[in-house]
Design a protein that fits this description.
Strand content: 25-35%
CATH class: Alpha Beta
Helix content: 25-40%
Bound molecules: coenzyme A
Number of strands: 8
Distance between the termini: 20 Å
Low-confidence stretches: none
Shape: globular
Mean pLDDT: 94
Structural class: alpha+beta
Number of domains: 1
């Protein structure tokens, strides 16, 4: 377990920890639900991303690296996840997301901080990620957690514009 924190807006403590095998189907379902609703991606981009995170793929990921899928739990519920890939001293943040009702209560920030801790544990010195240029919630959170914009990618995946961010971890 990385962190447990009580937030006055949440009924229970939030616990961030590596996903367990029996949670893979639930996390895959959540990823599908959340990504399907993201209007800043084209339908093709959404279905491409959803197809990457079947329960089978998530299970394979945690078998290779237990920190590659982190979950945020509030009581018995999974309210967020962070999927990432250790690329060898650098960790790629693939997706972090929080369920609709749990947003705006600090869960996303806890996931990003837990990713930092896990990157250090894996011997990484850097985390990097992309965001859509109009994903203001994600951009604001990343900047406030000291991620720096390193590139402005025009007409990139699925012909959409993205920013690349990086953060040094110490
Ligand atoms: C991005 C996301 C994970 C944030 O999760 P969250 O739990 O709501 O975020 P937090 O409550 O921890 O907020 C932390 C900070 O993020 C920023 N933030 C969060 N939601 C925001 C919003 N809707 N608008 C602007 N800033 C926002 C704020 O800086 C906030 O800090 P503050 O409350 O002190 O001002 C969530 O909005 C989400 O799941 N979005 C859909 C999936 C997604 O886009 N993932 C990122 C892909 S790159």
């Amino acid at each position: 377990m990385f962190q447990a924190k009580r937030n006055k807006n949440l009924k229970n403590s939030i616990v961030i920890r590596p996903m367990r095998a029996l949670e893979a189907a639930k996390v895959s379902r959540l990823a599908r639900e959340i990504i399907s609703a993201l209007e800043f991606y084209t339908p093709a981009a959404r279905s491409c991303e959803i197809n990457k995170y079947s329960a089978k793929v998530l299970l394979r990921k945690i078998k290779e690296d237990k920190f590659s899928v982190l979950v945020a739990r509030e009581g018995n519920e999974i309210v967020g996840f962070c999927i990432n890939q250790d690329e060898g001293t650098v960790v790629w943040l693939e997706w972090f997301a929080v369920t609709g009702l749990a947003r705006g209560k600090g869960v996303g920030r806890l996931l990003i901080r837990a990713l930092d801790d896990s990157a250090k544990k894996r011997g990484a010195h850097k985390i990097w990620c992309d965001t859509r240029v109009n994903n203001f919630a994600s951009i604001k959170l990343l900047k406030s957690e000291k991620y720096k914009k390193i590139a402005n990618l025009k007409n990139f995946w699925h012909h959409q514009d993205y920013f690349l961010f990086e953060k040094e971890v110490h």
